[in-house]
Amino acid sequence: DLSFAIGDTQILKNVSLSVPHGSIYGFLGPNGAGKTTLIRILLNLFSAGSNKVFLFGEDIAKNRIKIFQRIGRFVEQPSLYGHLTGAENLSIAQQYYGVAKSRVNETLKVVGMLEYANRKVSTYSLGMRQRIAIAQALVHDPELLILDEPTNGLDPNGIREIRELLISLNKEHGKTIFISSHLLSEIEKMCTHVGV
Asked: Widest CA span of the chain, in angstroms?
């Protein structure tokens, strides 16, 4: 029953959803429907006000740090340092989360970027940048991935690669994935559950 407004503009009204463990949950809506706003509330980037938001059955307002250790996230555009390599960008995330250095190469392998690890991010295609951003979200081995339009701006081949990666993360690595999109055809091809 989540509602959210900025000034007089109602962005979310009475939203309720439940993401089953082990699912790929597609959160669909046209551009401007409030998908990113909801994700920002889930990640405590926007205040939910008097509303209650629960992740893993726990109130986000009371257990934020504990909950966020179990989540990997990617909101809007990849936030990467172009002058650093893919591995160096991932190493920053690895240090932030305090996980073993070995997680850098393990995660690069999972997202199919190990062979490009020592190239500067500024030389990467958009699809490669998206993969590194997903790797950043995975480096601490979270249970849940929250991804905001990870295929945005990609060509059909790039979209297919990200789709296959997400299906693999779900089936082979046991990740629960919450993905927002406005592309019905893509959500249809990968998701086990859908919210509109």
From this structure: 50
CA 127 to chain centre: 15
CA pair distance 59, 30, nearest whole angstrom: 29
The pTM assigned to this predicted structure is 0.90
Strand ranges inside 68-149, DSSP E: 71-74, 144-148
pLDDT (tens digit, 9 = 90+) per residue, 66-121? 999 999 998 877 789 999 999 999 999 999 999 999 999 999 999 999 999 999 99
Amino acid at 168: S
**From CA 132, how far away is CA 127, in angstroms rounded?**
9
- How far, in Å, CA of 67 to CA of 143, rounded? 10
Q: Quick one: tokens of 33?
A: 């429907």
Q: Find, among 155, 151, 144, the residue nearest to 190 by Cα.
A: 151
